[in-house]
Every structure is written in C-alpha cells, then in structure tokens.
Amino acid sequence: MIADNLLRYQRANGGWPENINPLRILSEQEIARQAALYSVTDTSFDNRNVYPQIRYLAEAYQQTGDEKYQQAVIRSLRFILSDQLANGGFTHSPPSTKRYYGHITIMDDVMAGVLGLLQEIKLGSQRFDFFPADLVHQLSEAHSRGDALLLDLQVKSDGKLTIW
Question: Which of 34, 106, 112, 121 would bridge with 8, disulfide CB 3.0–4.6 Å?
C-alpha cells in the first residue's frame, strides 16, 4: 500500500512534491486527484524528500519483483541526474526557479540527502543491484561532482576551513 501510494504521488518528471503522507489510505477521490496532478512540476528535494521514496521503492521492488517499482526508481534517479547543475549542485525544488528554489541548497538535507543516496549506489548497495551499469556510472559521477562542490563551497577563514 505505501509503495503504491508513492507511485500515485510521483510526478511525470520522476520527483515528488514535498510533505506527502504515503501512509494514509487514500479515497478514490484522492487517488483521482493525484492522477490529475501527474504532470505538475511541483517537485522538491526539500524536507528530506525524494531519496527516502527511492529507497523505499527499491526495497519494494527487491521484495516483490514488480517492475512498476523498478521503473519508478529509475525514473526518479534520472530526475536527480537531470537536476544536477554543471558545478555538481542540486537545487531546492526542481524544476522551479522561483525565489530560492533554483539555487543550490545545503539546508534540509537537500545536498547531503541526495549525495548520501548516490554514495549508497556508488558503493554497490544490494538494494540497488538492479540498475543498468550505465546508470550506476552516471550516478557515481554525479556523486563525485557533488562531493567536490561541497568541498569547494566550504568557507575559509584565515586559511582554515570553517562552515558552509
């Protein structure tokens, strides 16, 4: 049920809107509403969003073998890859560029959460052993670019690394 709710909330671009509750039992009206919102681009990495859904759906695929979960995971990983900026950063709420949404975001585990997921994949977690090799390679490179950016963004004071 939770995995199916995650599929209902997932958007066409592969991401999810923030602050969803996949534990709820959705009414037929709510299910229809989510279907109508499928093409909306209200997706966000804010509030520890997207990467927990990917982990959950990967586990659902591993346990059930149901390809709809596999396809949702791969679509969401392509969403992550498409959002990564050339410098390695990830924005708050892709694809929106309103206010601060289009800027690199370190708060609320946006960068750390996405990079943590990418590192898990890069290190060969069994949870993700069904990915095509070319996708794993792309995700590994994305992780390396993101890590390098975080190091570049660290503030130096009197020659010492301090905060971000």
Answer: 34
